[in-house]
Design a protein that fits this description.
Number of helices: 12
Structural class: mainly alpha
Oligomer: single chain
Largest sheet: 2 strands, antiparallel
Number of strands: 4
CATH architecture of one domain: Orthogonal Bundle
Strand order of the largest sheet: 1-2
Distance between the termini: 172 Å
CATH class of one domain: Mainly Alpha
CATH superfamily of one domain: Winged helix-like DNA-binding domain superfamily/Winged helix DNA-binding domain
């Protein structure tokens, strides 16, 4: 017989419970009715095979937030124990699979903000947009009339005699053609690139005069040649800054377009060149100190004044005829 052990546990503590259901192992769902304030999350997200657990949790948390709630990395790092690096990596995963989209936009006051768009079912959103685009294309095709075929080339008529007896030139219409709308003038361009660095610095500092004039790097590169053309024509930086910042509208939505319009329309004329016929005016002689009387007089070189050089003539002029 085997040895009896008095400290062995009773048999009923290790009894195996037989489950009556078809799945004795795994997860068992206990579903209760929830009050208002819940979020519906699709299985395509919760059972995604490529997303990490942190990315799935962040997506579910972002979908549960109200409109306009901040979801930047700093705010999420304060809410969850994971660090900023892990949260940033999870947000990039959600962007790669279409659950998040971050767009940079400029507000009316010139600030640049980040708008985060959360998609609870990106595949369904893409399919709906494709259907809407196809329907719009069909409606546009049905509404637009068919384009007429191009007219054949006109036959050149021989010159016809005019009422005055003079033949009119061939091909010239008898009626006066309507003038076409004048195209927009191109922005001014400088002759050299000497003034480009000062022009770029002037555009970058415009936001100090008005915060709404915060320009992007692309806008500064596009507006630098017109400002350099102003500097090349003798305009001072203060005059250019005054022309660009004076009288701005209350609502400024496109500051770069407004600056480009002013730089083109208010371009000053170039300075007139000095005519070779008119010689430059001769500068007066510098002031010299007389070696005899210490008086100041104008002369090209130091020496004595006229009174000290000719004392007799000066005395006769002072006394006058007797």
């Amino acid at each position: 017989m085997a040895e009896q052990k008095p400290n062995a546990p009773a048999r009923d503590r290790y009894a195996i419970r037989r489950s009556p259901g078809p799945h004795p192992s795994g997860v068992h769902q206990v579903t209760e009715y929830q009050d208002p304030g819940y979020t519906i999350v699709g299985n395509h997200l919760t059972q995604h095979r490529s997303l990490s657990g942190l990315a799935i949790g962040l997506a579910a948390y972002i979908q549960s937030l109200p409109e306009g709630a901040p979801v930047d990395i700093r705010t999420l790092a304060k809410r969850f124990p994971e660090g900023r690096d892990r949260i940033a990596a999870a947000l990039r995963e959600l962007e790669a699979y279409g659950y998040l989209e971050r767009v940079r936009r400029r507000t009316d006051d010139g600030r640049v903000v980040t708008l985060t768009i959360s998609y609870n079912n990106p595949q369904a959103t893409r399919a709906r947009r494709a259907r809407e685009t196809a329907e719009q294309a069909k409606r546009r095709t049905a509404v637009e009339p068919p384009r007429p075929s191009p007219d054949p080339a006109p036959v050149r008529q021989p010159p016809q005699p005019s009422p005055t007896g003079q033949p009119s030139p061939a091909g010239r219409p008898s009626s006066t053609a309507q003038p076409s709308s004048a195209p927009q003038p191109p922005p001014p361009q400088p002759r050299t690139r000497t003034h480009h660095p000062p022009a770029a610095a002037l555009l970058a500092n415009l936001r100090r005069d008005d915060p709404r004039l915060l320009l992007s790097v692309r806008d500064i590169q596009r507006l630098t040649p017109p400002v350099a053309a102003w500097l090349e024509r003798g305009a001072t930086p203060d005059a250019i800054r005054s022309a660009l910042t004076t009288g701005l509208p209350d609502t400024l939505r496109h500051p770069a377009a407004l600056l480009a319009h002013r730089l083109t329309e208010l371009l000053p004329p170039p300075l007139p060149a000095v005519s070779p016929i008119d010689p430059p005016r001769a500068r007066p002689s510098p002031l010299q100190t007389c070696d005899g009387c210490d008086r100041a007089f104008r002369a090209p070189a130091p020496g004595r004044c006229r009174e000290c050089r000719h004392p007799a003539a000066a005395e006769s002029v002072a006394i006058g005829p007797g």
